[in-house]
Amino acid sequence: MYRQQRGGEIRFSGRELRDLGAAWLALGIAFTFFFRRDVAFGLLGATGQFPLDTAVVTLVISMGTVGVGFLLHELAHKIVAIRFGRVAEFRADYTMLALAIGLGLAGFLFAAPGAVYHAGREVTPRQNGLIAVAGPITNLLLAAVFFPLVVVAPDGVLLQAGQLGVSVNLILAAFNMLPFGPLDGRTVIGWSILVFALVFTVSAVLAVWAVLFVGFGL
């Protein structure tokens, strides 16, 4: 199913690159429709005009914040899995991507772009937990990267990107640390309750703070 990565080398198959690109673009489109209803209504013909400039700017911001947050989250899983001797590749879920775009157009938000699947060498519960927690921690780090824009950027595109980048990445971290279903939190709590409690608490508190005081900028 996957091409072997030798010696911990990070490699991408052609299919994986296509899946990453499709997920990145689809997420940008879905969030553009959700955050800018004038773009969605214009596309549907409800307003009689399509705000092309607004659509392009919002798409770029969404792909550079939301899209990057989702994809780097998944790539963090891949990198750590390969570090532990696993074979790992991202696979997009095209049904869920189409659903995300359709729901975004209708004014709802749901995104499950795909996942990194890994197999091969057996890993310990600790290693499996580290593979899982790498995604949420990456989102926390990305929020820190975007935060200076919230503080220093003037009103405009950079401030909007900072607000969206901070809020979405913190929400992604908190959501993925929920200990249910296929989410990362379930794997992490199976390894270490202490690590789970620390990462989940920090993510959840910061996510609430971001929603209340940072906003989404669009």
TrEMBL record:
Keywords: Hydrolase, Membrane, Metalloprotease, Protease, Transmembrane, Transmembrane helix. InterPro entries: Metallopeptidase_M50B. GO terms for molecular function: metallopeptidase activity. The chain crosses the membrane at residues 20-35, 55-73, 94-117, 129-152, 164-183, 189-216. Signal peptide: none annotated. It comes from the Archaea. This is Metalloprotease. It comes from Halocatena salina.
